[in-house]
Amino acid sequence: MTMKFIGLVILLTIKGTSLVGGAGDGGGGSNEVRESVDFQIPNIFEPVGINCRQYSRWFCLLGVWITTRQGPRQPQDGDEDFMRSIVQNNYKNINWYSFKQEDAANNGCCSYQVSIYVKNGQKHGLSPRDYWTRIQNLGLMERKLVYVKAMWNSALCKNIILQVGFGTGRLKVIGGKGLRHKFLMPHLGDDDENAYIFPGMGIRTRLTFGWFMVTVICGEKPELCSEMQGGAEGSTQMFLEEGMESLAASL
What is the pTM of this model? Predict the structure, then answer.
């Protein structure tokens, strides 16, 4: 299947945080239309970030969160097995790992990924292939920053970014001290200097999907950006150009 998908190590003690959440969990109201592709930032501060760091120093995909019905389709008996087969063939390509103990023997596959599909895809009328298409076509869809999970670092006087989500809906910030303070993206990759600071109130205009795609996703998997630039048109090319502009502004 052709893929189109597209810390700062601080030895300080920071209070723990909850496990995988997602932009669609809690807050925002039950009637709010939200869709978000969420990512974990590898870090040394909380369990999910530590688990992610075992697989990647750049990012881990958490899944696509959907809150509203997408169609009339009803669950079918073979959905979970079909989704499992899709994940098994592709999860390493996009860093979509499971951190469940039961999946450790399978190299991070696949009960977590299937459960995310059931909750966010099957429940809302999507087949396994439909849900997977939402992941495959991430770079072909217009997405805004809609979710930030953070924790406060009193020594740095900044919010440390743990998770981000891009999609549709209002911006939801969980943890930290909110938009009154700056946000720090932890150290990325193997270069200790790859840490980025974003303004609080202006984070949505600086931490864009284009920036994240170029800087983070393609930082580890440059072949994805090369593939997109080779055949990119319309919104995809716009995202890549936006990402390069945002990256230059952050340096």
Answer: 0.82
